[in-house]
Structure formats: C-alpha cells, structure tokens
From TrEMBL:
Coiled coil: none annotated. It comes from the Bacteria. PANTHER family: 3-DEOXY-ALPHA-D-MANNO-OCTULOSONATE 8-OXIDASE, ALCOHOL DEHYDROGENASE. The lineage of its organism: Bacteria, Bacillati, Bacillota, Clostridia, Eubacteriales. Keywords: Oxidoreductase. Residues 7-173 form the Alcohol dehydrogenase iron-type/glycerol dehydrogenase GldA domain. InterPro entries: ADH_Fe/GldA, ADH_Fe_C, ADH_Fe_CS, Alcohol_dehydrogenase_Fe. GO terms for molecular function: alcohol dehydrogenase (NAD+) activity; metal ion binding. This is Iron-containing alcohol dehydrogenase. It comes from Clostridium paridis. Residues 184-361 form the Fe-containing alcohol dehydrogenase-like C-terminal domain.
Length: 363
C-alpha cells in the first residue's frame, strides 16, 4: 500500500457548525438528516444542524430511526424517504451507526433503481453528498469510506463494499460532553483498536505510522480520565481527535483480526462494537511473533510497562458473557473465512491461534 487518500474536508472546534453554515449552501436545496432515536436531540447536534440549515435557507426532513448496528431494512426505509422527497444531500448525525447508514442511504437515493442488497453486489456505486457530524469518539466513520451494516439474512455485520467518504465532517466535542461513561469508554476503545490495527497492519507505511503514533499518543493522554470517569471538554476533544485520526488511518490500511472477530460477538452476544474488539485485545497482541512494533505501543501511550498496559486494557473492557466451545469454534471458522481481514494481519495465523484468542479472552 503506497497511496494515501482522504478527501473529506474537516472542520473542528466548539460551535463549528454555526460558524460554517455557509458550507451547506453549495450542497443543494434540500437535505435529509439521518440520525438515531434520541441522543442527537439531547446533545445539541441536531439543533445546531437545524439552525445552520435555516440560516442557509435549505429545506430538510429528518429520519430519526437508525438503531445501533443499523440493519439493511432500516436503511432501505430511509432510502425510500430520501427518494420520495427528492433530497440533494444527507447529513448524518450521531455515532457510527447513523454515519454509516448515511453512506448507504446516499447510494440508494443516487441510484433510484437499485435495492439495498444490490449495494453489496454492484461495484463502484456513487452517492449524493454526505456531511458527517460525529457525536461519539470511536468509529472515525466521518473520515472513512466504510459502512458496516447488519444483514439479518446472513446473520452477521458486513462492510457494504463501496467507497463513499463524507464530503465534509464537523467535529464539535461539545456533543460528547454528556455521553455516559460506558458509551464513552466503549467507543474510545474502538478508536484505540483502529489506531493499533492500522499500526500493526500489512498495509502500514511511514505516513500511516505517523498518524497511528500521533493518535495513540493523544489517546494515551486520556487513559486516566477514561478510568476515573473525569472527562472535561479538553479530554473530550482529545478523544475526538484520536478517533478521527484512527478513521483516517484505517481508511488507508483497513482493520484486522479483532474487528473481524468482534463482529460475531456483537451479532450473537450483543456486545457494543468497541467492547467486542477490545475484549480480545490482550490475547490478540500476545499472538504476534515479531514484537518490535507491539512492544512500542505502551511506550507511545505513555504507560510504564507492558504488564500495566494489559491491566489497563482489561479494566476498560470488562465483560461477563459465556461462550460455549461450539460457539467459539463457529466464530473462529467465520474469521478464518474472512480473507480480507486476515490479509491485513502482517503475520501467518492459524485456526488454532484464532480459537485461542477467543478462548483465553473469555476464561
Ligand atoms: P452507535 O451505534 O452509533 O451509538 C451507540 C449508542 O450511543 C446509541 O444508543 C446512541 O444513541 C448513543 N449516542 C451517540 N452519541 C451520543 C452522545 N453524544 N451522547 C449520548 N449517547 C450517544 O455507536 P458507535 O460505536 O459510534 O458506532 C458503532 C457502529 O459503527 C457499528 O455498527 C460499527 O460496526 C460501526 N463502525 C464503523 C466504522 C467505519 O469506519 N465506518 C468503524 C468502526 C465501527 P441514539 O441511537 O439515540 O443516537
Ligand atoms: Zn471499529
């Protein structure tokens, strides 16, 4: 991998949407706002977008039914609405779920004759413009081309196989100020997992390593606050930057084993995405045979020893679920078939090693 592509225009800072409301004018006359059921109405993000659109004299409609780990069915429903209302562009507000959904909805609006399943089958589909307003600091979806959709027919979550980057992203840490600690930690662990999987990646290069190391350093400065729950706006801003850097990174490198292995835990055991990856991390990092980069990570994070690093990871990803041997074998088989994620892991890995990552993580 010797290319670097990140076409999203990023605005960041407190009140950044209001200050830049004119950015919306270039995108058309009518917007579809895509968001979740509740949080954007409480954290100020929806109101800021509505006010900005009003100032810019742009009409809008709201679809506020995106669930966590969005299903193709919900996305198709929003796509129908967007088509019927002839919207020009989409503003996704929320965590990774509404942001990812916006990209797929954008494709359905742009290509009026296709259905949701076609998005996963036809190559190189275009979308209407997407603006992203993240309200979690985790997925980095505001700067990635990916969208992860729950496909109930296939009993799993899957990337849609298209490449749609948001045209603009507005990063305002104020929207995350009141986020409950559990969601803050789980999403922060997701950002961490992007930074590490992009760093320990077959596609890593000098540019991506620079981003990974900067992101990990910033994330490391938040560890004490994540453990204590004492999160002020400065820390919230750092978490948001670390998350966006993680997104810029995986947009180049992709993710690897924990992401591939975590999807089964989210789908079958309902673990939030970040936690589902994070719980596998101690064992995932132990699997590396070539350890030079692995052994640098805790130092970049500002942690004294590798043992302390593992202890912190365990504290941030505590989880109580039981997995049977049959379930573990099924998940490990699923991962061994996930050729894309396996290819991003920089070393050979066997089915037994994958099995052991699951087993030891839940012992
Ligand atoms: P999410 O599923 O978008 O949201 C999780 C929960 O957090 C929801 O209940 C949501 O409430 C709430 N929430 C969002 N913002 C909040 C805020 N500011 N304050 C309080 N609560 C808030 O969570 P996520 O972890 O950000 O996204 C996970 C999804 O992204 C998964 O489907 C994952 O696979 C995907 N993902 C995508 C990428 C990518 O590159 N595209 C990378 C990693 C993960 P409401 O529903 O009421 O809004
Ligand atoms: Zn992730």
């Amino acid at each position: 991998m010797n290319s670097f592509y990140m076409p999203t225009k990023i605005f960041s800072g407190e009140n950044i949407i209001q200050e830049n409301y004119k950015e919306f004018i270039k995108l058309g006359k009518k917007a579809l706002i895509v968001t979740g059921r509740g949080s954007s109405k409480k954290n100020g993000s929806l109101q800021d977008v509505q006010e900005a659109l009003n100032r810019a004299s742009i009409g809008y409609i709201i679809f506020d039914e995106i669930e966590e780990n969005p299903s193709l069915e919900t996305i198709e429903k929003a796509g129908e609405l967007g088509r019927k209302e002839k919207i020009d562009f989409i503003i996704g507000i929320g965590g990774g779920s509404p942001l990812d959904s916006s990209k797929v909805i954008g494709i359905l609006v742009k290509n009026t004759s296709i259905c949701g399943e076609d998005v996963f089958l036809k190559p190189n589909l275009k979308s209407v413009d997407i603006v992203a307003v993240p309200t979690t600091s985790g997925t980095g979806s505001e700067v990635t081309q990916y969208a992860i959709v729950t496909l109930h027919k296939e009993k799993t979550k899957k990337n849609y196989g298209q490449s749609i980057f948001p045209i603009i992203s507005f990063l305002d840490p104020r929207y995350t100020l009141e986020t409950p600690l559990k969601i803050t930690v789980n999403t922060a662990v997701d950002a961490f997992s992007h930074l590490v999987e992009g760093y320990l990646n077959k596609n890593a290069n000098i540019l991506t390593d620079a981003i990974a190391e900067t992101g990990m350093k910033i994330w490391g400065e938040c560890i004490d606050s994540l453990l204590s729950g004492n999160l002020d706006i400065k820390i919230r801003e750092k978490l948001m930057f670390a998350s966006t850097l993680g997104g810029i990174l995986i947009a180049q490198t992709g993710t690897s084993l924990p992401h591939g292995m975590g999807y089964a835990l989210t789908y079958n055991k309902d673990l939030p995405h970040g936690l589902a990856n994070g719980v596998l991390y101690v064992e995932y990092l132990r699997v590396f045979k070539y350890r030079e980069k692995v052994d640098k990570i805790h130092k970049i994070l500002g942690i004294d020893s590798y043992e302390k690093f593992e202890e912190i990871l365990r504290k941030l990803t505590k989880v109580q679920i039981n997995l049977t041997d049959v379930e573990i074998e099924e998940y490990a088989r699923g991962m061994i078939e996930n050729k894309g994620k396996l290819a991003n892991h920089p070393e050979e890995i066997t089915y037994e090693e994958l099995l052991n990552i699951y087993k030891r993580s839940f012992q």
